[in-house]
Amino acid sequence: MGAKRLITLLFLCSAASCVTAVYAQESEGIRRLRNPIDHLLDAEPFENGFWGVHIVDIESGRVLYARNAGKSFVPASNTKLYTTAAALDLLGPDYRFETGLYTDGMVDEEGVLHGNVIVRGGADPTLGGHYLSDSGDWDEDIDALVVFRNWADSLRAAGIRRITGDLIGDDDVIDDVPLGVNWSWDDETWYYSAQLGGLAFHDNVIHLYVDGRTPGMPANLTWEPLNTDYVQVINRTLTTEPGTGLKEGYQRQRGTNTIEVTTRVPAGASELEEITVENPTRYTVYVLRETLLQSGIAVTGDPVDVDALSIKPAYETPSYRRVAIHRSAPLPEIASLINKPSQNLYADLLMKMLGAALPQEDNDLDPGSAAMGIETAMSTFARAGVDTSAIRLVDGSGLSRLNLVAPEMTTALLSFMWTHPDTRVRDAFYDSLPVAGQSGSLKHRMRRGLATENMRGKTGTLTFASSLSGYVRAHDGRMLAFSIMSNHHISGSTGIRRIQDAIVELLAGFE
Q: Catalytic pick from 72, 328, 336, 342?
């Protein structure tokens, strides 16, 4: 054998030995990860359901664990990852929602507006809202009426003291479909199923307070905003003896704003519930009218939904004047308001507005529909490496059970956003996610351990469906993307969440 050939052979053998050693080392590390995960997922209480798990090292793209990773699962609120990622990618971090205040008549020397006041909605979900973007916490001390009071000041500055016409709510920026596809009728009373529309206010709910005072007597009921008579509240409550249990009972009659309260509350205790309203567009201008009256501006006309008009507003004509405009916080803050508390209304309006702002051609979809928003978002998903022929989305929030995604799609999206060429988009998406043991829907999970304040992710919960997907930095410094989805487990969500948290803790210790 020649010397040159011998040297080459020795070099190849040496290289092969190195590769074999590295492969064996990585395989051993993956085995140390795989075995305990398998043990967790194969536990007897969960054998009747289905797990889907995909874990990747983002930098190398190496798959560290996979189980049913390409199968379709109902993701629940993991859908919000797709909504906020697409919106940040396509609309950009400087995007803001806008809501305009217009008049359509002349103002005489006595301050009388001979015409209407129109609120032109821009599908801003945060108008009069009560969520803090930094933590995702709900804050009842936020003044929901501050924008309306500012508008009252703007009308006075325009010389208006009395309005002879109507207050018109224009929600035509998006479609008039108030609920998502396949949403449950059973949920219509509750805040997480608030109606959708191009004009939203106060999260499209009232805050109903039930105060127990005298045993044997009805509880005292009040509500925000302003004890508005847009809703009719039927009090069938009962105050029980101090120390007895609270038994909630609320029902908004379908298609109406009649709310029946049958709660039993102990004396000295109080209860707060968020109850949805029918027709949030009219609700918005109804409460605006009440605020104007409270501010000293007389209104002769009625609160009107633009859909009741035969002639729509013509904002470009000389008789229309924009008196004020309200701009929302920038999109990164909206994304935090969606992902941290898992706010359905905000996610669904963002998805619809994505379709209104960037409608796709060559289809017959309504530009302001959820379907158009999803069609628009597909361009982001495709660039992320998601198989768009296999994903099925019908809303932006994940409240529908017709949404179907695979864990490997979700890790592809997470990896794409982590390596996004626009660092502002990347940071906005990452910062929007709850932090384990610290904020949002993860505030009370993983409060001790390596995952605490390390892992960022999105929860998802429906009956018999639970998901957790996000990022965690491994012990050796690598950033991992993971998606853990479960469907059809009947053992209860508490046990499922413990499994999810245990897997994330294993990832945080991986090296």
A: 342
